[in-house]
Write a structure and sequence with these properties.
The complex is a heterodimer. Chain A contains twelve helices and no strands. Chain A is mainly α. The longest helix of chain A is centred in the last third of the chain and has 38 residues. By secondary structure, chain B is mainly α. Chain B has a single domain, classed as MetI-like (MetI-like fold). The chains are: A mainly alpha, B mainly alpha.
Chain lengths: 315, 304
């Protein structure tokens, strides 16, 4: 690994740490910008009780002390109790919901990457063939239909009318197919479009002509030369893709009654359960930013322009 | 080769010098519009969006109902001559509500896009023009904001500021201008290298003049395309937030809030979901078609 590449990665890492700090601070500021406090109720609470509650939760300390404690809690990964569910902590909710969301997200991710790449490369290889038209229709559907509509349509036709798959809940693999499809629709469309346009660009370059002139079969040219070069822009999309899968899962988990973190998040949003909202936001932000960081690292490692030049590819 | 002697004589008058300039007559803008007009899908998108805007402006006036009047005995009635799109769970006219939803969606989309444009172009062009330390500082902060997941920030802001259209717009702008700023800065950095900017500098044009007369107009293609593609994102976000119950509040109607109540009635009263869902989908499709059309039309690499 050369030095410039190392310094590029180091800079990205510093940016990651700075961004994480900003998110943490932003959530703290927003949490304290909310008018009122968690103990405000319709019935007046005796001031003595309020006072001891404030003391118990450390809310009578000066702001800066609270901020320091908040950062310390974040570092030791303690996100505090839930307001709405007595006796439950945000940590516990994340530990319970996240594995489900992660499983669903990974399935949707693989589905989106696999079918998106397949559609996009087929449509670029057979331009204006039926594969191309299919890809255009699929990406138009993915981009223009909101995911809650796709989910409902899937439930209605595949689960209710044809009774092929279960409608909702989270029990077996069959239960995961419809929600994963609904989440994957939008990213599939994006990946297909991205792959198509970048493959078409690569196909027009001179070295493809050279490879063809040497007598290589089109299939070999595509697998050996085109795909390798055309995949680079798709790798950059992996970060936003993760974000899209996570936000997609909010609605989809609600519609399919899946006990994942997205479901918890949505019900805490409608129930104004501030600690859960903020805790889950911090958690998701950190998760996403770490993912994006690793995508960047992968991109730096595989992009020949960065790997060989050692600097930024374009300024 | 056979050279006749008169070809070797010096050209005396200006008229005799061949004028090469006369060949390249079509301007960038004219050429771009010509290509946009040739794009049938984009034209279809523009036409549908025009129709939608008319519906949004005049629909509620033409309708004999309001979006909040309830006709409880007629609740959940299917589309008929009396109610073209049927009624909802409180017997409110779906057609009028859809038109009001169009108003809200278009208003949110266009306002958010314009605000993004204003902030993004200002920040991006200043960073690109001034360069140096200023550019470095601004772009690093932009990188940080960019890496924070947008929709999460928007949801958090909505939870704290309370639901409503204005808060949706503020929350969307809070994260939305960044993409625009990055694109404008990239464009300006590229354009700054070109010879005509050198020429303008050599002729003594001020930096403001170069920015306003040369750099920004030449970056207009990507700016317009980004803006057109921001609108559907904003509309989508509004529908998403309304779906989560963070959007516009009753009795106001938005497509997202109509769909979110309609989804539970899908089996028995399907029009309550499909009317708003069709409108969301069509609008998204149109804006995407138009945005792609603009992007292709202004892309210099695709010029023929």
């Amino acid at each position: 690994m050369n030095r410039q590449l190392f310094s590029l990665l180091a800079r990205k890492f510093i940016l990651l740490v700075l961004s994480l700090y900003c998110v943490a601070t932003l959530t703290f500021v927003l949490m304290h910008a909310i008018p009122g406090d968690p103990f405000m109720q319709e019935q007046a609470v005796p001031p003595e009780i309020l006072k001891s509650m404030y003391r118990h939760y450390g809310m009578d300390d000066p702001m800066i002390v609270q901020y320091g404690r908040y950062l310390k809690n974040l570092l030791t990964w303690d996100l505090g109790p839930s307001f709405n569910y007595e006796g439950r902590t945000v940590n516990g909710i994340i530990a319970e919901g996240f594995p489900v969301s992660l499983a669903l997200g990974c399935e949707a991710l693989f589905l989106a990457i696999g079918s998106g790449l397949l559609l996009g490369s087929l449509s670029a290889a057979f331009r204006s063939g039926w594969q191309d038209h299919l890809a255009v229709v699929v990406s138009a559907i993915g981009i223009s239909l909101p995911n809650f509509l796709i989910a409902t349509l899937l439930q209605f036709f595949l689960a209710m009318k044809l009774a092929l798959l279960p409608i909702a809940r989270w029990e077996s693999f069959a239960h995961t197919i419809l929600p994963a499809l609904a989440i994957a629709a939008l990213p599939t469309a994006f990946i297909a479009r991205l792959t198509r346009s970048s493959m078409i660009e690569v196909l027009q370059q001179d070295f493809i002509l050279t490879a063809r002139a040497k007598g290589l079969h089109m299939r070999q040219v595509i697998f050996r030369h085109v795909l390798r070069n055309a995949l680079l822009p798709v790798v950059t999309y992996l970060g936003p893709l993760t974000a899209s899968v996570i936000t997609g899962s909010f609605v989809i988990e609600k519609i399919f009654a899946i006990p994942g973190l997205g479901h918890w998040f949505v019900s805490s949003v409608s129930g104004r359960d501030y600690t859960v909202i903020l805790g889950v936001t911090v958690f998701y932000s950190m998760f996403l930013m770490t993912c994006v960081f690793f995508v960047d690292v992968i991109y730096c490692l595989i992009d020949p322009r960065i790997r060989l030049a050692g600097g930024r590819s374009r300024k | 080769m056979n050279l006749s002697p008169e070809l070797l004589l010096p050209l005396k008058t200006r008229e005799q010098i061949p004028q090469e300039d006369a060949v390249a007559g079509i301007s960038y803008w004219k050429e771009s519009f010509r290509r946009l007009r040739a794009n049938r899908l984009a034209l279809l998108g523009i036409a549908l969006l025009g129709f939608l805007s008319l519906l949004a402006i005049f629909g509620p006036m033409l309708s004999s109902y309001t979006h909040y009047d309830m006709h409880l005995p007629l609740k959940n009635s299917p589309p008929s001559a009396q109610f073209i799109f049927g009624t909802d769970e409180l017997g409110r006219d779906m057609f009028t509500r859809t038109c009001c939803g169009a108003r809200i969606s278009l208003f949110v989309g266009i306002t958010a896009a314009l605000l993004d444009l204003l902030i993004g172009v200002t920040v991006g062009s200043l960073a690109g023009c001034i360069g140096g330390k200023f550019d470095e500082t601004v772009m690093r902060s932009v990188d940080i904001i960019y890496s924070i997941p947008h929709l999460l920030v928007v949801i958090m802001l909505m939870v704290i500021m309370g639901p409503g259209i204005i808060t949706i717009i503020i929350a969307l702008t809070f994260t939305g201008w960044i993409g625009m700023a990055r694109i404008v800065r990239g464009q300006i950095l590229q354009l700054k290298q070109l010879d005509f900017i050198r020429a303008a500098e050599a002729l003594g044009a001020s930096r403001t003049r170069i920015l306003l007369r040369h750099l920004i107009p030449n970056a207009m293609g990507p700016i317009l395309a980004t803006m057109t593609l921001t609108i559907p994102t904003a509309i989508f976000a509004e529908a998403f937030l309304s779906f989560l119950g963070l959007g516009v509040q009753a009795p106001a109607a938005s497509w997202g809030s109509m769909a979110s109540t309609g989804i539970y009635a899908m089996r028995f009263y399907p029009w309550r979901l499909f009317v708003p869902a069709t409108f969301i989908s069509l609008t998204m499709l149109c804006f995407n078609l138009v945005g792609d059309g603009i992007r292709d039309a202004f892309d210099p690499r695709l010029r023929t």
